[in-house]
Amino acid sequence: MVRIFVVLSLLLSFINANALHGELGNILGQNSYLAKKKFLNIIFKDQQKFYVGSQVDIHKVLSTLKENNLINLNFKKSRELYLSFATQQDNPLIFMKMIQNTLNTLGYNTPSTQKVMRDTSGFMWKVTLKTSSAIDPLLFANELTKQGCYISKMKRYSKTNWRYNINISDIDIVPKVTEFNKKIYLKKPLNPYWIDVENAKTVVLSSARGNSWHPYIVFYDRNLKVLDTISKELKSYNERLNIPRGTKYVKISDIYTLENLKRGLSIYISK
User: What was the pLDDT predicted at 176?
Assistant: First the structure.
């Protein structure tokens, strides 16, 4: 019995090592991975630190690579950057708008669409950007986390060609319908709050006692175009905001972590 357990443990360790190093090869590109393999074996020696369940934790892998200056993103001159964004979830409009907003937040202009594909395996959006550097995948991952989604896989085909598989299953796609002119309590969020505020003029948000809320609030029109964003690094307990004309939805989150809203908040919407 003990021998069986030892054999299974060794087999699991071997499988995990293969999966982790497979992702390292995808992120760095095979040539760069092979050139740095000895160093990678050292910094990724404790393999289990880089897993969530049976899945490689891409975010933690990216953080470690960046800490060790192992991701080269700069070009010698401005070039076309080819990006593919894929998801298995069936919400293409939400997905495309989320990606576009994230790129804009990182300082990239609206990308040029090259191809849109939708089939039984999911949805893919292929775009190009004219830029002097590739997107920093860790900053990209951080922005996605703020929106309640994450990179499940990624692959670097070349310095100017990247693919990101993104899981958006935890996004609350259907915005909550909240009564106007009435104080409503919202419990601790698992994902950013999405509220339908169409035709409203003001919204008052009050953080519950015991929170440490740093507001990150985004107003969208019905096509998910960003109309305004409020982001505050200082802790806040109350926010009274005018709702931009044409707003359909408001997304309420925290710039750092939703744990800062662990006791929920109340919302009062006025016409």
Answer: 63
